[in-house]
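USER: I would love a firmer grasp of how sequence relates to backbone shape in proteins. This is the protein in question:
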Amino acid sequence: MASCISSLGHDRYSSNNFDELFNLPRYKRYLDFTSHEVDDHLENHSNKRLKFSHDDEFVNVEKRVVEFSNKELPCLKIVAGSVYIPKDDPKKPLGEDAHFIHELFQTVGVADGVGGWVKQGIDAGIYARELMKNSHTATYDEAMKGHVNPKRVLKEAYKNTHSKGSSTACIITLNSERSSIVAANVGDSGFLLIRKGKIIYKSPIQQRGFGCPYQLGNCKDNPSVAHEMELNVEKDDILMVGTDGMLDNMNDSEIEEIVRRAIDEKLKPKELAKKIGNIALYNSFDRFADTPYARASKGRHKGGKVDDITVIVAYIQ
């Protein structure tokens, strides 16, 4: 969570098998986007966009899913799981992070509401959750046109998100035909690409100063500032996506050690995500830990940073 406005107390998991998602009833359930609870106003708003209300529309979607499933399966696919650990705040039990996993269209996303809005009585977590719900919807719309373009997903989601507040955002999709991942990132959420237990790429952060990341919402930034990336991937690579609650509290060496153990123990994606999240949580309360957050502060802060923690782990198979 960033504190500067630029001019979920328990774990949440989501993991699905890509091949099983071609079964329509599960596909329909997946579109209901149950990763996070939301208030009634947002729930009702999202239902209008994500659930089917007419038989004709349902039949049309069913035909398109069948057409998609009859295509030759891609050489690579992602199988993903996640953990979300909101910090303990009775006033905001859902925290300020949000995320989605859309394995059918091989796309994941995270968002982190900017905490500075609390000074104006605004819960930026509501904006982050609406942005991710709209990103999930936009992913489906993009896939119907062809390949998912993360920056276009962000643009569409941003256009349709009207809650007060702002958040960082990172959307990543697998392009199986090109054997690559394509990403669009705004702010200090981000991702790591891990190969054989070693981090081979870490996305750069976008910020105007310490604690002041680029952000989408009621601020001067918009999706045009998103940093776009495309990286070649191989079978057995691991994509790890997180908000700054993970990235600020975990050193690269710690992540690599945990990942190597996970490979040896054949852990599932959500099991690895939980291990990473728990270590990030532990470090966040350690006043003497040597963390990326402490180093970036240049002496202004020591130890970890108490924050909401979101981790998505995607195995590339």
User: Anything to note?
Assistant: The chain has nine helices and 13 strands. The CA atoms of residues 124 and 180 lie 32 Å apart. The radius of gyration is 18 Å.
